[in-house]
Amino acid sequence: MRLANALAAVKPSASMAVSDAAKALKAAGEDVIDLGLGEPDFDTPAHIVEAAYQAAKEGQTRYTPTGGSTALKQAVARKFERENGLQFAPGEIIISNGAKQVIFDGLMATLEPGDEVILAAPYFGSYADIIRILGGVPVVVACPVEAGFRLQPSDLEAAITPRTRWLILNSPSNPSGAIYTGAQYAALGDVLMRHPDVAILSDEIYEHITFTEAGFVSFGAACPDLRERTLIVNGVSKAYAMTGWRIGYGTGPASLIKAMTTVQSQITSGASAISQAGAVAALDGPQDSVADFCAAFRRRRDLVVDRITAIPGLDLQPPEGAFYAYIECSGWIGRTTPNGQRLASDSDVATFLLDHAKVAVVPGAAYGLSPFIRISTATADAILDTALSRIADAGNALTGLAP
Length: 403
Ligand SMILES: Cc1ncc(COP(=O)(O)O)c(C=O)c1O
What we know:
- This protein is α/β, with parallel strands linked by helices.
- The chain folds into two domains: 5-43 and 289-397, Alpha-Beta Complex (Aspartate Aminotransferase, domain 1), CATH 3.90.1150; 62-284, Type I PLP-dependent aspartate aminotransferase-like (Major domain) (Aspartate Aminotransferase, domain 2, 3-Layer(aba) Sandwich), CATH 3.40.640.10.
- Helix content is 39%, strand content 13%.
- The protein contains 13 helices and twelve strands.
Protein backbone atom coordinates (compact mmCIF):
# COMPACT_ATOMS: atom_id res chain seq x y z
CA MET A 1 0.00 0.00 0.00
CA ARG A 2 1.32 3.47 -0.86
CA LEU A 3 1.35 5.67 2.27
CA ALA A 4 0.88 9.43 2.51
CA ASN A 5 4.01 11.57 2.29
CA ALA A 6 3.00 13.31 5.52
CA LEU A 7 3.68 10.10 7.42
CA ALA A 8 7.29 9.78 6.26
CA ALA A 9 8.57 12.07 9.00
CA VAL A 10 6.26 10.76 11.71
CA LYS A 11 7.37 8.25 14.29
CA PRO A 12 5.09 6.08 16.41
CA SER A 13 5.00 7.23 20.04
CA ALA A 14 8.42 6.41 21.57
CA SER A 15 6.99 5.33 24.92
CA MET A 16 4.57 3.00 23.16
CA ALA A 17 7.41 1.58 21.05
CA VAL A 18 9.43 0.91 24.20
CA SER A 19 6.44 -0.71 25.85
CA ASP A 20 5.84 -2.87 22.79
CA ALA A 21 9.49 -4.03 22.92
CA ALA A 22 9.08 -4.80 26.64
CA LYS A 23 5.87 -6.74 25.97
CA ALA A 24 7.57 -8.77 23.23
CA LEU A 25 10.40 -9.71 25.62
CA LYS A 26 7.87 -10.59 28.33
CA ALA A 27 6.00 -12.79 25.87
CA ALA A 28 9.30 -14.56 25.17
CA GLY A 29 9.53 -15.38 28.88
CA GLU A 30 11.88 -12.56 29.98
CA ASP A 31 11.33 -10.86 33.35
CA VAL A 32 11.09 -7.29 32.04
CA ILE A 33 10.00 -4.25 34.07
CA ASP A 34 8.31 -1.62 31.92
CA LEU A 35 9.02 1.93 33.09
CA GLY A 36 8.10 3.29 29.66
CA LEU A 37 4.41 4.06 29.61
CA GLY A 38 2.89 7.10 31.27
CA GLU A 39 -0.31 5.90 32.81
CA PRO A 40 -1.31 5.69 36.47
CA ASP A 41 -1.21 2.13 37.81
CA PHE A 42 -4.30 2.82 39.97
CA ASP A 43 -7.87 1.80 39.25
CA THR A 44 -10.37 4.47 38.26
CA PRO A 45 -12.18 5.49 41.50
CA ALA A 46 -15.35 3.42 42.06
CA HIS A 47 -17.83 6.33 42.05
CA ILE A 48 -16.71 7.25 38.53
CA VAL A 49 -17.15 3.71 37.24
CA GLU A 50 -20.56 3.57 38.91
CA ALA A 51 -21.68 6.84 37.29
CA ALA A 52 -20.71 5.55 33.84
CA TYR A 53 -22.47 2.24 34.49
CA GLN A 54 -25.65 4.04 35.54
CA ALA A 55 -25.43 6.28 32.47
CA ALA A 56 -25.18 3.25 30.20
CA LYS A 57 -28.11 1.56 31.94
CA GLU A 58 -30.20 4.73 31.65
CA GLY A 59 -29.65 4.81 27.89
CA GLN A 60 -26.94 7.46 27.55
CA THR A 61 -25.64 5.36 24.70
CA ARG A 62 -26.14 7.67 21.74
CA TYR A 63 -24.07 10.39 20.10
CA THR A 64 -23.64 13.46 22.27
CA PRO A 65 -23.23 16.88 20.62
CA THR A 66 -19.93 16.75 18.66
CA GLY A 67 -18.14 19.18 20.98
CA GLY A 68 -19.26 17.35 24.12
CA SER A 69 -22.33 16.80 26.28
CA THR A 70 -23.86 19.83 27.96
CA ALA A 71 -23.43 18.12 31.35
CA LEU A 72 -19.68 17.63 30.88
CA LYS A 73 -19.12 21.11 29.46
CA GLN A 74 -20.86 22.50 32.54
CA ALA A 75 -18.71 20.33 34.82
CA VAL A 76 -15.59 21.55 32.99
CA ALA A 77 -16.72 25.17 33.41
CA ARG A 78 -17.22 24.54 37.16
CA LYS A 79 -13.77 22.95 37.39
CA PHE A 80 -12.06 26.00 35.83
CA GLU A 81 -14.02 28.38 38.06
CA ARG A 82 -13.32 26.37 41.23
CA GLU A 83 -9.69 25.41 40.66
CA ASN A 84 -8.28 28.09 38.38
CA GLY A 85 -10.52 31.13 38.90
CA LEU A 86 -11.34 31.17 35.17
CA GLN A 87 -14.78 31.51 33.58
CA PHE A 88 -15.65 29.83 30.29
CA ALA A 89 -18.96 29.74 28.41
CA PRO A 90 -20.04 26.42 26.81
CA GLY A 91 -19.00 27.77 23.39
CA GLU A 92 -15.45 28.19 24.69
CA ILE A 93 -15.15 24.51 25.73
CA ILE A 94 -14.57 21.33 23.71
CA ILE A 95 -14.62 17.71 24.88
CA SER A 96 -12.47 15.25 22.90
CA ASN A 97 -11.14 11.69 22.88
CA GLY A 98 -8.32 12.40 25.31
CA ALA A 99 -6.17 15.49 25.67
CA LYS A 100 -4.25 14.30 22.61
CA GLN A 101 -7.23 14.89 20.37
CA VAL A 102 -7.72 18.38 21.78
CA ILE A 103 -4.13 19.10 20.72
CA PHE A 104 -4.70 17.54 17.30
CA ASP A 105 -7.98 19.41 16.74
CA GLY A 106 -6.40 22.72 17.75
CA LEU A 107 -3.38 22.37 15.47
CA MET A 108 -5.37 20.94 12.57
CA ALA A 109 -7.81 23.84 12.77
CA THR A 110 -5.04 26.42 12.50
CA LEU A 111 -1.83 25.20 10.85
CA GLU A 112 -0.90 25.85 7.23
CA PRO A 113 1.97 23.90 5.66
CA GLY A 114 5.27 25.47 6.70
CA ASP A 115 3.85 27.17 9.80
CA GLU A 116 6.19 26.98 12.78
CA VAL A 117 5.34 25.76 16.26
CA ILE A 118 7.76 26.44 19.11
CA LEU A 119 8.43 23.51 21.44
CA ALA A 120 10.35 23.82 24.70
CA ALA A 121 12.60 20.74 24.91
CA PRO A 122 12.30 18.35 26.58
CA TYR A 123 8.72 18.12 25.28
CA PHE A 124 5.98 15.48 25.00
CA GLY A 125 6.99 13.72 21.76
CA SER A 126 3.51 13.66 20.24
CA TYR A 127 3.56 17.46 19.80
CA ALA A 128 6.31 17.25 17.19
CA ASP A 129 4.72 14.34 15.35
CA ILE A 130 1.25 15.91 15.26
CA ILE A 131 2.79 19.12 13.89
CA ARG A 132 4.62 17.11 11.20
CA ILE A 133 1.49 15.15 10.22
CA LEU A 134 -0.16 18.51 9.58
CA GLY A 135 2.73 19.83 7.48
CA GLY A 136 3.93 22.22 10.16
CA VAL A 137 7.49 22.68 11.38
CA PRO A 138 8.47 22.03 15.00
CA VAL A 139 10.97 24.65 16.19
CA VAL A 140 12.76 23.14 19.15
CA VAL A 141 14.20 25.40 21.84
CA ALA A 142 16.52 23.59 24.27
CA CYS A 143 15.67 24.23 27.92
CA PRO A 144 18.59 22.61 29.74
CA VAL A 145 18.61 21.41 33.31
CA GLU A 146 20.46 24.62 34.34
CA ALA A 147 17.35 26.58 33.25
CA GLY A 148 15.19 24.23 35.33
CA PHE A 149 14.00 22.74 32.01
CA ARG A 150 11.94 25.94 31.58
CA LEU A 151 11.72 28.16 28.51
CA GLN A 152 13.53 31.46 29.05
CA PRO A 153 11.91 34.66 27.73
CA SER A 154 15.02 35.63 25.71
CA ASP A 155 15.09 32.20 24.04
CA LEU A 156 11.39 32.52 23.21
CA GLU A 157 11.95 35.95 21.69
CA ALA A 158 14.82 34.58 19.57
CA ALA A 159 12.76 31.62 18.30
CA ILE A 160 9.78 33.66 17.06
CA THR A 161 9.68 34.32 13.30
CA PRO A 162 6.98 35.64 10.96
CA ARG A 163 5.98 31.96 10.42
CA THR A 164 5.43 31.22 14.13
CA ARG A 165 1.83 30.18 14.71
CA TRP A 166 1.94 28.55 18.15
CA LEU A 167 4.01 28.18 21.30
CA ILE A 168 3.30 24.94 23.17
CA LEU A 169 3.92 24.89 26.92
CA ASN A 170 3.39 21.96 29.28
CA SER A 171 3.43 22.39 33.04
CA PRO A 172 3.90 20.19 35.02
CA SER A 173 6.04 18.77 32.25
CA ASN A 174 6.21 15.36 30.73
CA PRO A 175 9.06 14.37 30.83
CA SER A 176 10.98 16.78 33.14
CA GLY A 177 8.39 17.43 35.87
CA ALA A 178 9.20 21.17 35.73
CA ILE A 179 6.43 23.58 36.78
CA TYR A 180 6.19 27.24 35.76
CA THR A 181 5.36 29.78 38.45
CA GLY A 182 2.91 32.58 37.71
CA ALA A 183 5.83 35.03 37.46
CA GLN A 184 7.69 32.82 34.97
CA TYR A 185 4.56 32.58 32.83
CA ALA A 186 4.05 36.33 33.07
CA ALA A 187 7.62 36.92 31.81
CA LEU A 188 6.88 34.72 28.77
CA GLY A 189 3.57 36.55 28.44
CA ASP A 190 5.42 39.87 28.15
CA VAL A 191 7.29 38.51 25.12
CA LEU A 192 4.09 37.13 23.59
CA MET A 193 2.31 40.48 23.97
CA ARG A 194 4.81 41.85 21.44
CA HIS A 195 3.89 39.09 18.94
CA PRO A 196 0.14 39.20 18.42
CA ASP A 197 0.10 36.42 15.79
CA VAL A 198 1.49 33.74 18.11
CA ALA A 199 -1.11 31.57 19.84
CA ILE A 200 -0.39 29.62 23.03
CA LEU A 201 -1.30 26.00 23.68
CA SER A 202 -0.96 25.30 27.40
CA ASP A 203 -1.07 21.58 28.16
CA GLU A 204 -2.13 21.29 31.81
CA ILE A 205 -2.91 17.57 31.92
CA TYR A 206 -0.66 16.97 34.98
CA GLU A 207 -2.22 19.86 36.93
CA HIS A 208 -3.04 17.75 39.97
CA ILE A 209 0.27 15.96 40.32
CA THR A 210 2.53 18.52 41.98
CA PHE A 211 5.04 18.28 44.82
CA THR A 212 6.07 21.91 45.41
CA GLU A 213 4.83 24.52 47.87
CA ALA A 214 3.96 26.90 45.05
CA GLY A 215 2.01 24.17 43.26
CA PHE A 216 0.31 24.62 39.92
CA VAL A 217 -0.82 27.78 38.16
CA SER A 218 -2.79 27.76 34.92
CA PHE A 219 -1.32 29.78 32.05
CA GLY A 220 -4.81 31.21 31.62
CA ALA A 221 -4.78 32.62 35.16
CA ALA A 222 -1.20 33.92 34.89
CA CYS A 223 -1.67 35.65 31.52
CA PRO A 224 -5.29 36.84 31.28
CA ASP A 225 -4.36 39.40 28.61
CA LEU A 226 -3.57 36.53 26.24
CA ARG A 227 -6.92 34.83 26.73
CA GLU A 228 -8.10 35.45 23.16
CA ARG A 229 -5.19 33.39 21.78
CA THR A 230 -4.77 30.73 24.46
CA LEU A 231 -5.92 27.12 24.14
CA ILE A 232 -5.82 25.34 27.51
CA VAL A 233 -5.63 21.54 27.22
CA ASN A 234 -6.54 19.28 30.12
CA GLY A 235 -8.35 16.02 30.78
CA VAL A 236 -9.22 13.29 33.22
CA SER A 237 -6.68 10.66 32.06
CA LYS A 238 -3.89 11.34 34.54
CA ALA A 239 -5.62 12.94 37.56
CA TYR A 240 -8.34 10.30 37.87
CA ALA A 241 -6.55 7.23 36.47
CA MET A 242 -8.82 7.26 33.42
CA THR A 243 -6.41 6.84 30.50
CA GLY A 244 -8.58 4.21 28.83
CA TRP A 245 -11.76 6.31 29.01
CA ARG A 246 -10.33 8.75 26.46
CA ILE A 247 -11.73 12.05 27.70
CA GLY A 248 -9.85 15.33 27.37
CA TYR A 249 -11.09 18.90 27.28
CA GLY A 250 -9.95 22.25 25.99
CA THR A 251 -10.88 25.89 26.44
CA GLY A 252 -10.21 28.73 24.06
CA PRO A 253 -11.76 31.56 22.06
CA ALA A 254 -15.17 30.57 20.67
CA SER A 255 -14.00 30.90 17.04
CA LEU A 256 -11.18 28.39 17.62
CA ILE A 257 -13.39 25.97 19.58
CA LYS A 258 -15.97 26.11 16.77
CA ALA A 259 -13.32 25.25 14.16
CA MET A 260 -11.95 22.45 16.36
CA THR A 261 -15.46 21.06 16.73
CA THR A 262 -15.78 21.00 12.93
CA VAL A 263 -12.50 19.06 12.71
CA GLN A 264 -13.71 16.65 15.37
CA SER A 265 -17.06 16.16 13.63
CA GLN A 266 -15.21 14.61 10.69
CA ILE A 267 -12.78 12.51 12.72
CA THR A 268 -14.67 10.93 15.62
CA SER A 269 -18.11 12.64 15.81
CA GLY A 270 -17.18 13.30 19.45
CA ALA A 271 -16.24 11.39 22.56
CA SER A 272 -17.99 8.36 24.06
CA ALA A 273 -21.23 9.31 25.83
CA ILE A 274 -20.61 6.80 28.62
CA SER A 275 -17.06 8.05 29.25
CA GLN A 276 -18.34 11.63 29.32
CA ALA A 277 -20.82 10.66 32.05
CA GLY A 278 -17.92 9.17 34.02
CA ALA A 279 -15.89 12.35 33.53
CA VAL A 280 -18.74 14.45 34.99
CA ALA A 281 -18.56 12.32 38.14
CA ALA A 282 -14.76 12.68 38.19
CA LEU A 283 -14.83 16.50 38.00
CA ASP A 284 -17.85 17.08 40.25
CA GLY A 285 -17.36 14.24 42.74
CA PRO A 286 -15.10 13.71 45.76
CA GLN A 287 -11.46 14.55 45.04
CA ASP A 288 -9.85 12.39 47.78
CA SER A 289 -8.41 9.88 45.33
CA VAL A 290 -6.63 12.68 43.44
CA ALA A 291 -4.77 13.57 46.65
CA ASP A 292 -4.07 9.88 47.38
CA PHE A 293 -2.62 9.32 43.89
CA CYS A 294 -0.49 12.46 44.24
CA ALA A 295 0.86 11.28 47.62
CA ALA A 296 1.88 7.95 46.06
CA PHE A 297 3.60 9.72 43.15
CA ARG A 298 5.47 11.97 45.58
CA ARG A 299 6.65 8.97 47.62
CA ARG A 300 7.92 7.29 44.46
CA ARG A 301 9.52 10.52 43.23
CA ASP A 302 11.48 10.70 46.51
CA LEU A 303 12.53 7.07 46.16
CA VAL A 304 13.72 7.59 42.59
CA VAL A 305 15.65 10.78 43.43
CA ASP A 306 17.41 9.07 46.36
CA ARG A 307 18.36 6.00 44.42
CA ILE A 308 19.27 7.57 41.07
CA THR A 309 21.48 10.31 42.50
CA ALA A 310 23.47 7.57 44.29
CA ILE A 311 24.31 5.86 40.97
CA PRO A 312 27.64 7.05 39.52
CA GLY A 313 27.18 8.68 36.12
CA LEU A 314 23.44 9.38 36.51
CA ASP A 315 21.87 12.57 37.81
CA LEU A 316 18.35 13.74 38.46
CA GLN A 317 16.91 17.16 39.22
CA PRO A 318 13.97 16.38 41.57
CA PRO A 319 10.80 16.53 39.45
CA GLU A 320 8.34 19.15 40.73
CA GLY A 321 5.30 17.37 39.34
CA ALA A 322 3.91 14.72 36.95
CA PHE A 323 4.99 11.08 37.29
CA TYR A 324 8.26 10.83 35.42
CA ALA A 325 11.94 11.17 36.18
CA TYR A 326 14.12 12.65 33.43
CA ILE A 327 17.51 11.24 34.29
CA GLU A 328 20.69 12.75 32.91
CA CYS A 329 22.98 9.93 31.73
CA SER A 330 25.96 11.84 30.29
CA GLY A 331 28.23 9.98 32.75
CA TRP A 332 27.36 6.70 31.04
CA ILE A 333 28.01 7.91 27.51
CA GLY A 334 31.37 6.69 26.25
CA ARG A 335 31.46 3.74 28.65
CA THR A 336 31.50 0.10 27.57
CA THR A 337 28.91 -2.60 28.26
CA PRO A 338 29.80 -6.19 29.25
CA ASN A 339 29.14 -7.10 25.59
CA GLY A 340 31.87 -4.73 24.50
CA GLN A 341 29.53 -2.09 23.09
CA ARG A 342 30.41 1.56 23.62
CA LEU A 343 27.39 3.63 24.71
CA ALA A 344 27.28 6.50 22.24
CA SER A 345 23.82 7.99 22.89
CA ASP A 346 20.85 7.87 25.24
CA SER A 347 19.19 5.48 22.78
CA ASP A 348 22.14 3.13 23.37
CA VAL A 349 21.66 3.53 27.13
CA ALA A 350 17.96 2.63 26.81
CA THR A 351 18.79 -0.42 24.67
CA PHE A 352 21.49 -1.49 27.15
CA LEU A 353 19.06 -1.21 30.08
CA LEU A 354 16.46 -3.26 28.25
CA ASP A 355 18.91 -5.97 27.15
CA HIS A 356 21.11 -6.12 30.22
CA ALA A 357 18.91 -4.98 33.14
CA LYS A 358 15.56 -5.97 31.66
CA VAL A 359 14.20 -2.50 32.43
CA ALA A 360 12.36 -0.58 29.70
CA VAL A 361 13.01 3.19 29.69
CA VAL A 362 12.52 5.83 26.98
CA PRO A 363 15.58 7.62 25.52
CA GLY A 364 15.70 11.41 25.81
CA ALA A 365 16.05 11.64 22.02
CA ALA A 366 12.27 11.11 21.91
CA TYR A 367 11.79 14.34 23.92
CA GLY A 368 14.23 16.54 22.04
CA LEU A 369 16.90 16.88 24.75
CA SER A 370 19.77 14.41 25.18
CA PRO A 371 21.45 12.60 26.84
CA PHE A 372 18.66 11.62 29.21
CA ILE A 373 16.44 8.62 29.88
CA ARG A 374 12.87 8.93 31.08
CA ILE A 375 11.34 6.54 33.55
CA SER A 376 7.72 6.55 34.62
CA THR A 377 6.97 6.39 38.34
CA ALA A 378 3.44 5.22 37.65
CA THR A 379 4.57 1.79 38.80
CA ALA A 380 4.00 -0.04 42.11
CA ASP A 381 6.63 0.90 44.72
CA ALA A 382 8.10 -2.60 45.05
CA ILE A 383 8.50 -2.99 41.29
CA LEU A 384 10.05 0.46 41.01
CA ASP A 385 12.45 -0.48 43.80
CA THR A 386 13.55 -3.63 41.96
CA ALA A 387 13.95 -1.69 38.70
CA LEU A 388 16.17 0.90 40.41
CA SER A 389 18.38 -1.86 41.83
CA ARG A 390 18.70 -3.35 38.35
CA ILE A 391 19.66 0.05 36.89
CA ALA A 392 22.31 0.48 39.62
CA ASP A 393 23.69 -3.03 38.92
CA ALA A 394 23.80 -2.27 35.21
CA GLY A 395 25.82 0.87 35.93
CA ASN A 396 28.28 -1.19 37.96
CA ALA A 397 28.74 -3.52 35.00
CA LEU A 398 29.97 -0.70 32.73
CA THR A 399 33.68 -0.34 32.21
CA GLY A 400 35.92 2.42 30.93
CA LEU A 401 35.77 6.05 31.84
CA ALA A 402 33.41 8.56 30.36
CA PRO A 403 35.39 10.87 28.05
C1 LIG B 1 1.89 16.13 28.23
C2 LIG B 1 0.81 15.22 27.77
N1 LIG B 1 -0.22 15.74 27.11
C3 LIG B 1 -1.23 14.97 26.65
C4 LIG B 1 -1.23 13.60 26.87
C5 LIG B 1 -2.34 12.78 26.31
O1 LIG B 1 -3.35 12.59 27.25
P1 LIG B 1 -4.65 11.73 26.88
O2 LIG B 1 -4.36 10.32 27.28
O3 LIG B 1 -5.75 12.33 27.69
O4 LIG B 1 -4.88 11.85 25.43
C6 LIG B 1 -0.16 13.01 27.56
C7 LIG B 1 -0.11 11.54 27.76
O5 LIG B 1 0.90 10.94 27.99
C8 LIG B 1 0.87 13.84 28.03
O6 LIG B 1 1.91 13.34 28.70
